[in-house]
């Protein structure tokens, strides 16, 4: 009898051991995928932290804009190197490419009006100026962003020599001093870093007057170098035009980051425009050197120049920190690309920034106020 009980006890112990092992095995099967799913990698942490921090700074910039509207002067507070590095770690180029593809997805006819109406309400778009007011006409968001205006919506000023190339907000303007340009009041960037090394005189067709980079752009004694920065908000007209009569002789494309160029961010990050992807068009007008630069931004990786079919922005084949040049001067074309004042020049996919840097006599005067809204065709300045 005792032998039977002992045998039964040992068999029960074996069963319990087997059952316990099975439970452990099942628990491992259930918990392993959960642990794998919640395993955080350094890249994910950086992206999440960077995105959250960038969002916070953008909200902070919005608050600063509201205080500015009330006339409250705010001290300049620049980002530290680690803050800029953290922001640049966010894959804005990849996100912008994804946004571009999403914009090209054709919307069902029934969905177009609600989607576009929400955008119009959010950003204050004036559809009465659009060449086609019917929202059902635009097959996707990309077509809606690039909508054309009625011919009479933007009369081009004939009196003044330089007009606004786009709709937007004037961030800064004035003379270039000490080889630096102001992106917003109190925050500057290097002229040479922004435009890149000097282009050959064969392309620009003039002889520099001095040794510094700023003087190398000035062709005539007594002239000065001027600049003007125009910020295009998401609700603005997204095409840009020629600001004067000039000849484009050279294009330089800088692949780069696609950080926000919102005025709040421009006030926070020094040399923001030098970090971001941009297309620099250079040439000459009746007073000498003239350049127009289209600066990319978050969700604005695509910059299109109508006469330049070889230009491809926000492309994976181009790495940050480089630049590529293209000359419009050739044996068959000694004049470059002639542009008339007000002529269509290019477009953004959403909204961004236009920077004009040009040479003019000392009596050139801007007809602007910092922070004012301006529309394409209105006067920037004249002699």
Automatic annotation (TrEMBL):
List cofactor names only: pyruvate
GO MF terms, alphabetically ordered: phosphatidylserine decarboxylase activity
Q: Please describe the post-translational modifications of this protein.
A: Is synthesized initially as an inactive proenzyme. Formation of the active enzyme involves a self-maturation process in which the active site pyruvoyl group is generated from an internal serine residue via an autocatalytic post-translational modification. Two non-identical subunits are generated from the proenzyme in this reaction, and the pyruvate is formed at the N-terminus of the alpha chain, which is derived from the carboxyl end of the proenzyme.
Please give the residue positions where the record annotates the modification Pyruvic acid (Ser). Answer: 352
Q: Name one GO biological process term.
A: regulation of mitochondrion organization
Any Pfam family matching the protein: PS_Dcarbxylase
In this UniProt entry, which residues form the Mitochondrial matrix topological domain(s)? 1-39
Q: Does the keyword Methyltransferase apply?
A: no
Q: Which InterPro entries does this chain map to?
A: PS_Dcarbxylase, PSD-B, PSD_type1_euk
Q: List residue numbers at the site (Cleavage (non-hydrolytic)).
A: 351-352
Q: How is the cofactor bound?
A: Binds 1 pyruvoyl group covalently per subunit.
Q: Carries keyword Secreted?
A: no
Q: Name one GO cellular component term.
A: cytosol
Question: Mostly located where?
Answer: other
Q: Where in the cell is it found?
A: Lipid droplet
Source domain of life is: Eukaryota
What spans does the record annotate as topological domain Mitochondrial intermembrane, numbered to this chain?
59-383
Q: Which keywords fit this entry according to its UniProt record?
A: Decarboxylase, Lipid biosynthesis, Lipid droplet, Lipid metabolism, Lyase, Membrane, Mitochondrion, Mitochondrion inner membrane, Phospholipid biosynthesis, Phospholipid metabolism, Pyruvate, Transmembrane, Transmembrane helix, Zymogen
Which EC number(s) does the record attach to this protein?
Answer: 4.1.1.65
Q: Report the active site residues.
A: 167 (charge relay system), 241 (charge relay system), 352 (charge relay system), 352 (schiff-base intermediate with substrate)
The record lists the catalysed reaction(s) as:
a 1,2-diacyl-sn-glycero-3-phospho-L-serine + H(+) = a 1,2-diacyl-sn-glycero-3-phosphoethanolamine + CO2
**Pathway terms, separated by semicolons:** Phospholipid metabolism; phosphatidylethanolamine biosynthesis; Lipid metabolism
Q: What does this protein do?
A: Catalyzes the formation of phosphatidylethanolamine (PtdEtn) from phosphatidylserine (PtdSer). Plays a central role in phospholipid metabolism and in the interorganelle trafficking of phosphatidylserine. May be involved in lipid droplet biogenesis at the endoplasmic reticulum membrane.
Q: Which family does it belong to?
A: Belongs to the phosphatidylserine decarboxylase family. PSD-B subfamily. Eukaryotic type I sub-subfamily.
Please describe the quaternary structure of this protein. Heterodimer of a large membrane-associated beta subunit and a small pyruvoyl-containing alpha subunit.
Supply the name of the protein. Answer: Phosphatidylserine decarboxylase proenzyme, mitochondrial
From which source organism is this entry?
A: Coturnix japonica
């Amino acid at each position: 009898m005792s032998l039977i009980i002992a045998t039964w006890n040992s068999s029960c112990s074996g069963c319990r051991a087997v059952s316990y092992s099975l439970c452990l095995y099942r628990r491992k099967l259930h918990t392993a995928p959960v642990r794998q799913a919640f395993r955080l990698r350094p890249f994910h942490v950086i992206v999440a932290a960077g995105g959250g921090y960038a969002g916070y700074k953008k909200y902070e910039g919005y608050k600063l804009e509201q205080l500015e509207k009330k006339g409250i002067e705010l001290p300049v507070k620049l980002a530290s190197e680690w803050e800029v590095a953290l922001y640049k770690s966010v894959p804005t180029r990849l996100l912008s490419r994804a946004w571009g593809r999403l914009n090209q997805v054709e919307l069902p006819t029934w969905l177009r009006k609600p989607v576009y109406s929400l955008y119009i309400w959010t950003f204050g778009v004036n559809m009465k100026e659009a060449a086609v007011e019917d929202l059902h006409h635009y097959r996707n968001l990309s077509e809606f962003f690039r909508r054309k205006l009625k011919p009479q919506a933007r009369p081009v000023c004939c009196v003044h020599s330089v007009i606004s190339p786009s709709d937007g907000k004037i961030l800064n303007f004035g003379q270039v001093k000490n080889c630096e340009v102001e992106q917003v009041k109190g925050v500057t960037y290097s002229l040479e870093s922004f435009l890149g090394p000097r282009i050959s005189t064969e392309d620009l067709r003039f002889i520099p007057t001095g040794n510094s980079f700023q003087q190398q752009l000035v062709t005539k004694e007594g002239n000065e170098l001027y600049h003007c920065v125009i910020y295009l908000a998401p609700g603005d007209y997204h095409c840009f035009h020629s600001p004067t009569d000039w000849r484009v002789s050279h294009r330089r494309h800088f692949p780069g980051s696609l950080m926000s160029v919102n005025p709040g961010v421009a006030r926070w990050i020094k040399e923001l425009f030098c970090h971001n992807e941009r297309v620099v068009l250079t040439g000459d007008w009746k007073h000498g050197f003239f350049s127009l630069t289209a600066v990319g931004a978050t969700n604005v990786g695509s910059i299109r120049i109508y006469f330049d079919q070889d230009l491809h922005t926000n492309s994976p084949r181009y790495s940050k920190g480089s630049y590529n040049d293209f000359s419009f001067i050739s044996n068959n074309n000694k004049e470059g690309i002639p542009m008339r004042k007000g002529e269509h020049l290019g477009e953004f996919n959403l909204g961004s920034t236009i920077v004009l840097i040009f040479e003019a006599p000392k009596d050139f005067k801007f007809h602007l106020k910092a922070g004012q809204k301006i529309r394409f065709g209105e006067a920037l300045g004249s002699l």
